[in-house]
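Field reference: "sequence" (input) and "structure" (output). Example, C2H2-type domain-containing protein:
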Amino acid sequence: MLYFCQNKVAFKQNNLNKFLRRLLQGDFIKQIVVYFQYKGSTILSEYKQYLRIRTLFEQLRLENIGTFTVNLPQNLIADNVIDANVLKVLEAERVSLISVYNATTELENLKREIVQRREELAIIVAHNQDKLQTEHCPLCGARYDDCSELVKHIESYGTQLS
C-alpha cells in the first residue's frame, strides 16, 4: 500500500500508456482518418447547420415568440433531414404558445387592474373609517366586530394580493 501511495502518479501514467498503446495498435485510428477523408466535409457542414439552428432557437423568448420566425435551409427539408410534418407541428405549437402567452398577458393586466382598484377602495375605506356605519367589509362583504379590525384586515389582504 505504501508503494502505491508513493508511486500513484506513475501508476496512473502507466495505465494511460497501456490504454493508448492498445488504441494505436488497432485499426481504429486509421478507420477514423479514412472515414473523415470521405465524410468529413458533410459532417462539418451538418454540424454548422445544427449550430445555426440551435442559435436561432436560443434567441426564442416568450416576449418575441409572436414575431419569431425560423428560416431553415431548404436542403434540410429536401434531404429529409427535417420532416416537413414536424415543422407543421412545431408551427402549430408556436401558434398555441402565442395564444397562451397573449391570454396570460391579458390576465396579468386584468389582475393588476383589479389590485389597483382594490387598493384605491382600501385607501378610501382607511380615510373614511370613522364614517363607516357597518361592520361589513365594503370590498368582500365579510362581517367584522369593529372598524379597526376591518381596516387591519383590508391592509393585510392587500399585501397578500401583491
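The mean pLDDT is 77.
The two ends are 65 Å apart (CA to CA).
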